[in-house]
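Listing 4. Sequential folding, example run.
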Amino acid sequence: MSKTAVAAFEVIVIYNGVSKEVEVNPNQAVQALLQHSLNVFGIKESRENFGLFTTEGVEVNLESSVEDAGIDADSRLLLRPRRVSGGA
């Protein structure tokens, strides 16, 4: 029997200088990782305004899978509010 299960791993998510490990699966959506991260940090308000960013400040595409976004066990992600664009 071939092994089809994909191994989960943990990534470091940093919010306001606090680091926490969050378990992810390579096939899950980054959006799911974001929601789990918000839960881990107890963020209940304005959740739609948050995003995950690389340590270089690039926002991770929430539509991608964890694997497609290049997130692996060595990744460190920043949880922070997205910049709001618009308005004249």
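-- end of first protein; second protein begins --
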Amino acid sequence: MAMTLRLSEEDDRRLTERAAKEHRSKHDLVVEAVHKFLTERERQFNQALEQGMERHRELLDRLAK
């Protein structure tokens, strides 16, 4: 899917430099960063959900009856 990404001049400069250092396109770096961000957020959410369920296990069990 195509989209437009607007970066500050500073972030664009840093992204350009990083891409050059890694011999990769800016596109590839952004796609990788978004994937890592979403994966980590999903992991954090699932961990928080699991902790909440464990913390309130007795209540959840009583409500399920």
